[in-house]
Specification:
It contains 8 helices and 6 strands. It has helices at about 5-20, 40-50, 75-85, 105-125, 135-150, 180-190, 205-215, 220-230, and strands at about 30-35, 60-65, 90-95, 130, 160, 165-170. The relative contact order is 0.17.
């Protein structure tokens, strides 16, 4: 892994700012990095590893991949990649897919069960923090999802403590746009995979992404404006 340059430079710079703004990392942290095999999680893992060379704090990383049992498993491919990076890793196999009726399987079900396995593994390994690969696009899309479909104003937090502080979720890519992550993945030659779930193409999240991309044609800063709005709530003008 060479010197930081190109798209990685900009993502790493934004990551450093997000880490500082939300106090995501501390010296001595042991972080479980959730790696699905997509471009976002692979980029997160790679950049967190690269940043250890020059940041003033020391932290340990364990890459975690949850194999949900889909026919096209990428566990073996990821295992090879983790060994190439020289990072400690665990492959967690789950048989929950076999026990669940097909009509019950959707994006929320998959996310919930994957997250449950991550929490259990992180706790067992002594990790107090779990790093997820969500970026600015995800945060903006989640805001619209909750607004349109749940009737509430909320989104993913860059840092969120759970179970009375026993586990902290961090999203170091919170300031990074997906287009920049895609560029980095291409520059770094990350052999990422797409979601193997058949529901992913038609999900409401993808619909929100299309809405945002359409609005970007007239307002290029739409994602940044959504992100900023969540930190500039004027309570006097809410019901």
């Amino acid at each position: 892994m060479g010197a930081i340059q190109g798209a990685e430079y900009y993502i790493s710079k934004g990551m450093g700012k997000a880490i500082m703004d939300y106090r995501m990392l501390e010296d001595g942290d042991k972080i479980a990095v959730a790696v699905s095999g997509g471009k976002d999680s692979l980029s997160l893992l790679r950049i967190l590893l690269d940043r250890r060379k020059f940041v003033p704090i020391k932290y340990k990383i364990i890459a975690l991949h949850v194999d949900m049992g889909y026919p096209r498993s990428i566990a073996a491919k990821l295992k090879t990649y983790f060994k190439k990076l020289g990072v400690d890793y665990r492959i967690i196999k789950s048989d929950v897919l076999k026990k669940t009726p097909k009509n019950k399987i959707n994006c929320f079900w998959c996310s919930w069960n994957r997250r449950k396995e991550l929490f259990l593994a992180a706790n067992k390994l002594g990790c107090t923090k779990i790093a997820l690969g969500h970026h600015m696009d995800d945060i903006a899309e989640t805001f619209l999802l909750n607004l349109f479909f749940q009737g509430e104003i909320s989104t993913m937090k860059p840092k969120q403590e759970l179970f009375e502080g026993k586990i902290t979720l961090i999203r170091p890519l919170a300031y990074a746009e997906e287009r920049m992550i895609r560029r980095f993945a291409q520059e770094a030659g990350l052999g990422h995979d797409r979601c193997v779930c058949p529901h992913s193409i038609s999900s409401n999240r993808n619909r929100m992404g299309r809405i945002i991309r359409d609005l970007e044609k007239t307002c290029p800063d739409i994602k940044k404006n959504i992100f900023r709005s969540l930190k500039r709530v004027k309570k006097d003008y809410l019901l």
